[in-house]
Amino acid sequence: MKTFALAFCLALTLAAGTAFAADGKELYAKCAGCHGADGAKTTLGNRPLKGMSAVDFAKAMEGYKAKTFGGAKKSTMEPVAARLSTDEIKALAAYATTL
Question: Is residue 15 part of a domain?
Fold first, then answer.
């Protein structure tokens, strides 16, 4: 019975984690104002998000979060990135590859 209860709790935990996983498309809606709905808009000469790899996107966001990355718009991006969890950054990075 204890094994069943433990397995059941583990299954619920995994299901809850999946249910509450970050939605990159929903998160990106806040980015579209500056970066464009399709990620093609350039801001202050920066390269567009469209075509950026998930790895490069995540590195940039983690860099903004750590205040170790960025050009002219870093003062805008640092507080944005600071509010994102690692899972949200991963979700955004995955979504960015679909732009």
Answer: no
Let me know: does 55 contact 38? Beta carbons within 8 Å: no
Helix axis angle, 86-96 to 54-66, nearest 10°: 140
Q: What is the CATH number of the domain that holds 31?
A: 1.10.760.10
Q: pLDDT digits over 48-98, tens only? A: 999 999 999 999 999 999 999 988 778 999 999 999 999 999 999 999 999
Among candidate residues 94, 91, 71, 95, the one with its CA nearest the CA of residue 17:
91
Torsion of CA 67, 73, 78, 79, to 10 degrees: 160
Tell me the pLDDT tens digit for each residue of 14-48.
444 444 468 999 999 999 999 999 999 987 777 89
